[in-house]
Write a structure and sequence with these properties.
about 425 residues, 14 helices, globular, single chain, alpha+beta, five-stranded antiparallel beta sheet
Length: about 425
Amino acid sequence: MAFVNWSRNQSGTPAEVRTPSSVEDVVRAVRDAAASGRRVRMVGTGHSFTGVALTDGIMLRPDALTGLRSCADDRVTVPAGTPLRMLNDLLAERGLALANMGDIAEQTVAGAIQTGTHGTGRDSGGLADQVAELELVLADGSVATAAPGDHLFDAARVGLGALGVLTAVTFRVEPAFLLRHRRRRMALGEILASLDELTSTHEHLDFFWLPHTDACLVKTADRHPGPARTPGAFAHWRDTVFLENTVFGAACALGARLPGLIPRINAVSAAALGDSAWADASYKVFTSRRDVRFLEMEYAIPREHLGQALRETRDLIDRMDWRISFPVEVRVTPPSGAWLSTAYGRPSAYVACHVYRPTPHPAYFAGVEEIMTRLDGRPHWGKLHTRDAAYLAGVYPRFADFTTLRDRLDPDRLFGNAYLEAVLG
């Protein structure tokens, strides 16, 4: 059975597919793979743009590893295949929430953590930074628990599936809270002049720059004492379904057929940007609906280089006279302690470039990648890039520690694949 990811740019045919429903099933699969000389990997929902999840051996689908294992005070444990949207529902039913999230809720908790999924936050980091404990099956078939204070914990939180198969994740959670979400239009030049103020004033900052214009859609979110003030059903449908997906998808399709119209289409989109504000449950503010399929490259750079990165990206697009329909997204996070987190050891800014799936633009990605690597950028593990182990060893201080631990835990590369050979050596 072939596996195809969400963006339909990665596919593979494993020798065997299994759907484990318990830790014991995962142990059996790992031992069977080792005994037969095959490799084994667990996939998520395919929201990575790289081949990180592919295998030619035994592919584990975690559809039956879902639900709630335990909930006590500020700790919640869920099986590895639990989708983030299900986790949000489970937490909300108990009056709890994650401190921060990315903007997609379709991934499994294990897949999101292993590839370093992050949102945006002044004080709260990505999903890996909210992990309190991990359970994983190692290459020898043993079941290990990774907790703060040991190397396996800091290595495996963003482990790319290279150290073992995650079977359960324990998150630190907190009482449910509201966020006041505000959307407004700002000029790119205005943002560049006030980056420090924007990132320090708001708990969560996310903005989108429309190429060929000076317009940005700026989204901020800050904790709100209540009561909730949610948009009406029609307004919600109009903004999140019709405008951000249906109309945007039609605009991308038109631009794909007539690239010369893209600057004009973006100008019309920029003119339509308006201000709005509401307050709602945190997870409803953090996450968004994404129906238009795209390809994405994202780099984390030291936050102090963000202004330079955006200016150079803007100038590159103008100089090359490219036609870019998708906005460039910018987010920020505090330092992380996970060894392979893109935010390890430094306050980070993320610059994400997207293109409409039917119109790949490798020259655009390559040009922006050159800018980001000059600024010590670290590519998102689940998004397109061309970096190899030699480069990555130079931007991750604990890279050698990670690969040494991998050599000890999986010397025969039971959990390996082509992507890991490229990025880890």
